[in-house]
């Protein structure tokens, strides 16, 4: 497919902010709907989002590849059940190439603010280079996990060695023979820790809260499987459906914390079998209910602690010195390199501080989200007409593929734009009463889940404990709700003044 749109156009029908899995899906669905007048604004020099940025050793997706890919763009050639970042990034770029999305993309275009002109029903997006893009609709697809969270350890600025965050891995720095301290034991850290352990002189893993880690079914696909998947797409689709439903069944313990407690027994046994030292195994065993934080998968993480050059520290960090790190019990370790597997700033009220979104009546999204970020179906916010979000409030997932949610959102957004066009209106704005009712019910339902009752704190929750990150139901329920836009939930508006 070729497009004749110039990505440097200053006025478009639709602007998409971010060229990761979400933005790319949106762009493809717009083209499929015959909407060519759009631009993807990408801050970097290439598409890919998460999979362009995260390249740490062992970086892979912990959702099966046949599921963590677009339903409309099956790939019979996935090498393994769980693919590494490079293979996923190659898939994204190949898909973008096939659908002509590079031609629609303006690279090195970072958006720093947006404001709505009510009289003309048009948004203006500000770019870092001072340029502006005007659009009727825009889609915020920048993703919730991209601003590294850097801990403020006392003395960190004095450290003379190397420091980097997992999402900004410095591949030019050779870890061989170095004394490395790694902080954090989330999904990123459990992937790179086993990879770097054999190379370094000593690895100190600093754990604040242990995670529940279940075995990973690491099969590679044989040449025969790939051939069958290519020849008989129905087989690949069946495989995808099986993976979907096996992941979807993980939603059960979320609503039934007692069921989660039963499953914990098996995982505790898994830890005891994998870790030789009893004290280390005990310290690696979580005390909160399984599922309260994201369930992780690995066969390699626990055995890493059987190595002589790896130790687990469960004390807090007291301070960092020029060449060492000191823990709360006063013990000190020499350190050449500090790796921060400390996750991301997930609260949009914090990471979007420098990105004012000014809607109707001069109100900002930041003001409206003062207490919590809220949207209708995670997509539209009352007072911000024609602004759509992907993986917005309460649409993250802890148990299944986010690509499923992204496809639901892209379909819904296209439907909204098409309905507005068919009605001959300029804008649609979700009714505040509908948005409030939706969120009230959602928060009531979240109260019974393992996230609120499991005895942990996680990035799923704000500091006050409110869960604004995760979709608390089955994903097919989201599919049903987003299948098409319910017109009664929106104000449909025609502006009085002609658009110039
Ligand atoms: O980050 P995290 P991540 N002192 O927030 C600890 C996705 N992902 O980058 O648990 C000491 O999970 C913190 O401790 P605690 C996935 O959605 C997906 O690993 O807060 N420790 C925790 O252990 C995932 O959930 C894939 O007590 C500190 C860790 O740092 C999300 O990205 C792969 C600390 C942060 O864990 C984030 O994962 C990888 C401090 N001051 C990631 N501050 C897939 O395969 C933080 N910690 C799809």
Automatic annotation (TrEMBL):
Gene Ontology MF: a single term: monooxygenase activity
Keyword Nucleotide-binding: no
Highest rank taxon of the organism: Bacteria
Alphabetized UniProt keyword annotations: FAD, Flavoprotein, Monooxygenase, Oxidoreductase
PANTHER family, A to Z: FAD_NAD(P)-BINDING DOMAIN-CONTAINING PROTEIN-RELATED, L-ORNITHINE N(5)-MONOOXYGENASE-RELATED
Protein name as it appears in the record: Monooxygenase flavin-binding family protein
Gene3D superfamilies for this protein: FAD/NAD(P)-binding domain
InterPro entries: FAD-bind_Monooxygenase_sf, FAD/NAD-bd_sf, Flavin_mOase-like
Spans traversing the lipid bilayer: none
């Amino acid at each position: 497919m070729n497009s004749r749109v110039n990505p440097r156009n200053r006025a478009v029908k639709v602007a998409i902010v971010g060229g990761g899995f979400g933005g790319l899906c949106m762009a493809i669905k717009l083209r499929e709907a015959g909407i060519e007048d759009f631009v993807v604004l990408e801050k970097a020099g290439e598409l890919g989002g998460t999979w362009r940025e995260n390249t740490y050793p062992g970086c892979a997706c912990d959702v099966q590849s046949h599921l963590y890919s677009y339903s409309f763009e099956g790939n019979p050639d996935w090498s393994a059940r769980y693919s590494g970042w490079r293979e996923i990034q190659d898939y994204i770029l190949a898909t973008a190439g096939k659908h002509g999305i590079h031609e629609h993309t303006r690279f090195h275009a970072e958006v720093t603010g947006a404001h709505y002109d009510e009289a003309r029903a048009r948004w203006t997006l500000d770019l870092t280079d001072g340029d502006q893009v005007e659009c009727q609709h825009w889609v915020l697809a920048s993703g919730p996990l991209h601003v590294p969270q850097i801990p403020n350890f006392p003395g960190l600025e004095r450290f003379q060695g190397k420091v980097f965050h997992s999402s900004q891995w410095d591949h030019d720095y050779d870890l061989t023979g170095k004394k490395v301290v790694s902080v954090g034991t989330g999904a990123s850290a459990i992937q790179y820790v086993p990879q770097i352990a054999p190379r370094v002189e000593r690895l100190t893993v600093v754990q604040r809260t242990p995670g529940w880690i279940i075995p990973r079914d690491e099969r590679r696909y044989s040449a025969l499987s790939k051939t069958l998947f290519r020849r008989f797409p129905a087989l690949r689709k069946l495989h995808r459906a099986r993976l979907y439903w096996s992941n979807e069944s993980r939603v059960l313990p979320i609503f039934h914390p007692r069921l989660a407690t039963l499953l914990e027994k098996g995982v505790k046994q898994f830890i005891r079998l994998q870790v030789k030292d009893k004290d280390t195994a005990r310290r690696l065993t979580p005390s909160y209910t399984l599922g309260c934080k994201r369930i992780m998968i690995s066969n390699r993480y626990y055995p890493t602690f059987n190595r002589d050059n790896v130790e687990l520290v469960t004390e807090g960090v007291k301070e960092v010195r020029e060449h060492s790190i000191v823990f709360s019990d006063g013990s000190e370790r020499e350190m050449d390199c500090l790796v921060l597997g400390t996750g991301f700033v997930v609260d949009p009220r914090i990471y979007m501080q420098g990105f004012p979104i000014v809607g109707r009546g001069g109100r900002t999204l930041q003001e409206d989200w003062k207490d919590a970020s809220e949207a209708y179906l995670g997509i539209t916010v009352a007072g911000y007409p024609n602004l759509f979000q992907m993986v917005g409030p309460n649409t993250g997932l802890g148990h299944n593929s986010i690509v499923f949610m992204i496809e639901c959102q892209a379909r819904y957004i296209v439907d909204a734009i098409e309905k507005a066009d068919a009605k001959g209106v300029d804008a649609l704005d979700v009714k505040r009463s509908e948005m409030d009712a939706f969120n009230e019910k959602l928060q009531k339902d979240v109260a019974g889940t393992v996230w609120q009752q499991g005895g942990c704190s996680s990035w799923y929750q704000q500091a006050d404990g409110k869960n604004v990150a995760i979709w608390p139901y089955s994903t097919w329920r989201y599919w049903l709700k987003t299948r098409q836009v319910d017109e009664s939930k929106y104000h449909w508006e025609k502006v009085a003044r002609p658009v110039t």
